[in-house]
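check this one:
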Amino acid sequence: MKYAAWFPTVRKLCIRAAFYGLLLAPAFWFAYELRFMDSADPALTKAFFDARLYQILWVVPFKLLLLYAAGQFHGLMFYFRLPDALRIISALLLAAVFLFFSGQLTSVEGHVIPRSVALIDFNLSVFTICGGRLALRLFRERVLTEISGDREGPAKEPVRVAIMGAGDAGAQLCAELLSKRGLGMRPVAFFDDDADKHGMEIHGIPVIGPAESIPLAKSRGDFAEVIMAIPSAAVRRMREVHTIVSGAGLRMRVVPSLVELASGRVQATDLRPVEIQDLLGRESVALDDTGIASLIAERVVMVTGGGGSIGSEICRQVCRRAPARLIIVEQCEVLLYRVEQELIDAGFGGLVVPIVANVTDTARIDAIFAKYKPEFVLHAAAHKHVPMMESQPGEAVKNNSLGTYTVAEAASRHGAARFTLISTDKAINPTNAMGASKRLAEILLQSLATRPGNTTRFLAVRFGNVLGSSGSVIPLFKKQIAAGGPVTVTHPDMTRYFMTIPEAVGLVLQATTLGEGGEIFVLDMGEPMKIVDLAKQLITLSGLRPGVDIEIRFSGLRPGEKLFEELKHSGEEFAGTKHPRIARFQSSPLPADKLPAFLADVRAIVDIEIRDNAKLAIRGLVPEYTPYLD
């Protein structure tokens, strides 16, 4: 049994020793040949050649011992990269230094090695060992890979691709594609914006020019795809390159982001198609990670609506900042299960407490606060589909306004330190019931902040549409494109602000670190974009032509919809904050002594069956609301 345990290790060591020995011995032998090939003293030459027979018996084992110490007997022989070469050179250099001065350590005839031989032997040993390891790697990549591919079936002709980006990521991608033919791609050209790289080569592949030269190169060469290998590329440049590539009739894919590459979860060869977020997103935003981490670390955090697109991203970002516990409140068990499993798979299972509950259930919410005592509450639970809530304004008020009050009041009563409401820019001068219900939630929240005895810091964060969130136009457009069209846009001049879900959530957490209580924060949404342009981008990403392959049809504004979203309403004072992407609005809150009567009026709206009457009742509480009436 013991023999069976150590035999594989001994066998591997013997194989490596034989491999290195068969390379080192000829190198040492040939070093003498080179040194004395033109010697004028035959007798001296014969003496050294005779001594060589004895010296090789201890020189080779000595070098093997140093290579073993350098870790070259433990790694896989087929894998050979620069760190391995450096360790080999270090071990052989140490051996050469010893051999160079060995003549001063002994005067025994037959053991003195000429210094010139030691130097020649060093160069030959490095060449043979590194060359041998490289040959093994090439044999595995170029021969064994092809043989295994042949066994699986007839080899497919690799797709010829061009790489945009001649930096580290592009060079790594090129090397991987050249060595791993099973990936089915063969790089034939590089493109880069750096003019100093033009005319140069990377791994034998030429750098032709900037992205603007892709159409001309395509007409002269033969490649069917362009891979964007600039993980840190600006969004504007990504859009420009995609326009050029799609205009040339080519497919485009991108390498993972710098964050994904640095995490080790993905490699440069894990390519993905260009997504709408790549083209419509904005430049990455710098966050105060230290401040956000201090807000969350070792604290009990509650997220309501944690199964939704915004809520689930909040859960991800909170978990990455080491809370003591994450309480996820969600009324839909399917969504709750999904986000719970995702967090468990990510290694956060010990932090997560999933709870099925409705935020309008006062007794249930109170019991959750009493049991878990959350210190930080992020309230994302909401009905947000504008047309659907337009036909059911009472439900919008019940969930968005009264649900917010229920959770906020429990947070205040149980001494939570902070409460953040995820609001919307549709709450500004609202024209739909959903936006008006969110504005009511803001009013209730600000009034709670002034209530005597309250110690909770209440704040709301407004932002516009997020790319890919549930209920957004993007899933609808994709479905319409897949069905062959038409893509329906309400109005050719309709504009909306867009940001990515991770960016929105990051800024929400950042705003929370800035809040003192009672504020409404608004996120810098950048420049608004026409919805029709968004539709055109999605059609182009699908490899089709807007107006040719897929029709764009204008259906007209729906009840409650605006042509454009506003940033603030009258009575709000605008002020900057420490963060350039976050602004603070301060308005006069509803006095705490008027809160009970106001709350009673809000509750009465829920029971109004006629929707026009419900909307008029909302307008009585939110004067800036302009309802659409039947």
Remarks:
- DSSP finds 21 helices and 22 strands in the chain.
- Residues 149-154, 261-266 have pLDDT under 50 and may be disordered.
- The first strand starts at residue 159 and ends at 164.
- The chain has three domains: 2-150, 159-274, 289-467+497-525+565-621.
